[in-house]
């Protein structure tokens, strides 16, 4: 009788251990950085600067007769690049912020690529301007959604 109780106790203990391991395995905790209103504002401001850059180039210049020569836009390229680098630095120092950091890295890589193409060709067509503008609009949207998600986790809707 004592052996039966001992075997029964071992089975219960084994069942509890297995269920506990399954429950722990099913639980997943993901840590994300807190919301940063200053970074969200900088994302918005940089997005506007890039949008204005391309809209101004499209509306006030033409590809003919050197109207879109690289040297006419080099200072604006640098100013926006400074803002993008600042966003990257701020995202890199935030712990658990790999996704936002990666979006910033991609944005800078594309900015540098498009800048180099403009410099090499010394002009941009209307089509390229529109494509570049759309690309950056999508990237900034991804940055904004990522930051908004952090805000929602910090302050869930009631």
Approximate shape = elongated
Distance between the termini: 57 Å
Which consecutive residue ranges, at least 5 long each, have pLDDT under 50?
none
Q: Which structural class do the helices and strands define?
A: mainly alpha
Order of helices and strands: HHHHH
Share in β-strands: under 5%
Number of helices: 5
Structure notes:
The protein has 158 residues and is mostly helical. The chain has 2 domains: 1-30; 37-154. 77% of the residues lie in helices and 0% in strands. It has 5 helices and no strands. The chain has helices at 2-26, 37-60, 74-93, 98-121, 126-154. α3 runs antiparallel to α4. The longest helix has 29 residues, at 126-154. It is elongated. It starts with a helix and ends with a helix. The mean pLDDT is 88.
Break the fold down into its secondary structure elements and pairings.
Elements: H1 2-26, H2 37-60, H3 74-93, H4 98-121, H5 126-154
Helix pairs in contact: 2-3, 2-5, 3-4, 4-5
